[in-house]
Design a protein that fits this description.
mainly alpha
């Protein structure tokens, strides 16, 4: 894909995506956190996996991600999201 030439419009879309990637990931993490409050069983486990992947992309330390996933507490995840919003 690196050797493919993009139109100026496509280049602008790609550039905007990467410039806003942190905000996109943070919004996705917020959506996952709200879903975690209602989820049960296997669905809850899958949501935590998605949350962990989003947190990795937001450069949260692995030890903190592991702690959040092990505690299985959406309120703690909400606190992390608040911290991240304050940084942006």
């Amino acid at each position: 894909m690196a050797d493919k030439e993009y139109t100026p419009y496509q280049q602008r879309i790609i550039r905007n995506y990467y410039q806003n990637q942190q905000a996109i990931m943070l919004q996705r993490l917020q959506e996952i956190a709200s879903e975690l409050y209602l989820a049960e069983g296997k669905a809850r486990g899958r949501l935590w996996q998605r949350a962990a992947a989003a947190m990795e992309k937001l450069h949260i330390p692995a030890s903190r991600i592991e702690h959040l996933v092990q505690t299985d507490n959406p309120a703690l995840l909400a606190n992390v999201i608040q911290e991240l919003w304050k940084k942006t």
